[in-house]
User: What shape does this take?
Amino acid sequence: MTGRMQRLCTFVALGLSLVLAPGASAQQADLPLAAPVPGGIAIVCVGRAPGSAPQATFESQRVLVMRVGDAWQAVVGLPLALKPGAHQLTVVQGEKADRTIPFRVGKREYDKQYVTLANRRQVDPEPEDLRRIAREQELLVRAFTTFSDFQADGLAFDLPSAGRVSGGFGARRFFNNEPRLPHSGLDIAAPEGTPIVAPAAGLVVETGDFFFNGLSVVLDHGQGVITMYNHLSKIDVVKGIRVARGEKIGAIGQTGRVTGPHLHWSVSLNNARVDPALFLSSEVRKQGASGLVSTALGGVPGEAAPLRCEE
Assistant: This one.
C-alpha cells in the first residue's frame, strides 16, 4: 500500500470513529478520574439508561454526558476559581421539565511557583502587546467553548510527549515575585525538537503563534473536551484536519513565555481548565512517568471510584 493510500485509509477510519452519536456507551475505565475540587472533575449521575441522553449544563456551559452501564453520567470540569461548597447541574431530557441535580465541591490548596523572567514585557506587556493578547484571547475563547456532537476514541489519554514533569497543574504562580493566574496545565520538559503527539483522536480547531503561549495547537476531542499544546518549536498540522491518536502534531520548543524548552499541555472540559493527569489512561499511570501525579488529587495515586446512581 502506498504512503498516500495509507494516509487516506487512516483519515477515513478516523472520520468514522469521530462521528459517533452523542452519549455513546462507555466503560468506567474510559472515564477520567473523579476529583471534585477546583481544577478537578465531578462525575454526576444524571439519569438512568436506556433512553435519550440528557443534556446537562454547568455555569451556562454544556457538559459532556456519557452512558456508563445502565446510567448517564455527566463529566463536569470544575474551574480553578470555583468556590468549594454546594453546586448544581441543570438537566434537560426529552419532553421532561428541566431539573437540577446537586453535587458538592471540596477544597484543594495548590503549591506556589516562583518564576524569574528576564524579558520584562512577558510580565508587564506594553500597550501594543495587550492589544495583541486581547485578539489572541478571542481566538482561544472560541476554541475552548467549542462543543461538538461527536465523541472520539475515549477519554483515557496517552501522554503527548516524553519528558519530565517540570510544572504541576494549579500552582499559584508569581512572575518576578508578582502574582499571576494559576498554572492551567501540565509542563513536560524535554529537549527542543522532542515530538508531540495527539493523546487521543481529535480535530485541529486552532493553531498560531501567541504572545504568551508561543507556537500552539488546539485539538477538539468532542463534547467540550479540548486540549492545547504551547511553546512548540514547530507545528506539523493545520487548522481543520483530523488527527489520529499518536499522530505527530508538533515538537517541543521554547517559544512564548518560557524559561527553557518544554510543553505546556492544557485540558479543558466545558470551558474549565482541569488537571490533565486525571485523563491519563491506567496504563500511563502505572508507568509512573517522572513527576507525574495529579495535583487535583493531592499528589496521591488515584483509582476510579465506583459510580453510583440514585436516580
